[in-house]
Description:
The chain is an all-alpha fold. Helices cover 68% and strands 1% of the residues.
Amino acid sequence: MHNDAQGNAMTVASAEAARAFDHAIEGFLKYRFDTGLRLKAFLTADPTAPLGQVMAGSFAMLAYDRGLLGRAAGSLAKAQALPANARERAHMAALSAWIDGTPEKALSIWEQIVAEHPRDLLAFRLHHFCAFWMGAPERMVTLVEQVMPAWSEETAGFGSVLACRCFAHEETGSYTIAEHAGRDAVALDRGDLWAAHGVAHVLEMQGRRTEGLDWIAALEPNWDGGNNLMHHLWWHQAMFMAEQRDFDGVLRLYDTRFRNRESKVHLAQPDLYIDVQNAASMLFRLQLRGIAVGDRWEELAEKAEARIGDTLSAFTQPHWMMALAAAGRREAAARMLAALEDAARGNTHHARILRDAALPATRAVALHAEGRHDAVCDILRPALGDLHRLGGSHAQQDVLEQIFVDSAMKAGRTADARLALERAAAKSPVPPARRIGFAEAALAVAY
Length: 447
């Protein structure tokens, strides 16, 4: 028995293996491209360490790829066959629930682990990730504030806890707390991608676009060795540019940064859910403004068609449809809707999210592409209150709200446009008239 860098007892064969675990956890927390290699080194140092197998299974689940469920289940089975302490067994139970399609149960188990072991970074960070993609930012805030008294600058990993505090509070609208936490984390490590990302969200929500561009430009030199989160930060850069109407700059970033199809990060995971969301939502936003995007939809549509029936990521479903619809793949779009309808028939937590939020949002995207704007309003209006359950940040969810307001205006449905503007005004301190997706409607409709 040895301890990790945060003092948690773990079942490993040697101090060397414990340090390999710490190195893998650090890679996970800091979004390093070589995290997989770090995990491999840990598994090599001690193939019988139960947390090594738990991490392998968890990392497979993080991809939200149905094709990796078998790998995750195999790693879990290996972990369950190994000697382990009570904390490690709890980790196995959480992973089992996640694999079984009950992530709400996994959240509760991670919360119990952290209640007993407030410096368990693996449980804490997996909870942060899953709570976000389940549309539960209040649980992110509750957990981070619960653990804060157990942390200080002297504890390894403190900056990563601050980074999570930043993003959790940003998503619940506590922008001052969020910004201070994020900037403090970056002061500890200027290469902390999650902290940089959290502050970028604050600046986005507050309409501080010039500061946002400066923030990313100043930190980008520290991102060597980062993973796909770099793409998302460049997406934020493009979002700031779009608000300043620099559409040429947006397309340049698309091709050379967050959808650079020749980069090693892209080649490693060319259809990763977050990258697809970045790309599809940006092209869709540009098309709403009448900007020609050329043939950029085609490669996304190819990947979307290959993933029909993979509904693990609820928020990605309307983004896949954006690509299929824009590329004119109506038969594939129909198959995707049929597969989504089938997945939404169950009574699990995830099936209910698919039924109540993902399905209407995805249908609305398809109808919008066909110019059926009354139908978009009819199907999306009852679902607006459920869209947050898809996961995704306020900045990411905004594209679905833009679909609604665009169709409302084109259909001449003033009441629906007013509803969309009121929702936009409630979610951000930036008035709709200063936000590119809502400005035209705000000038035309009293709200």
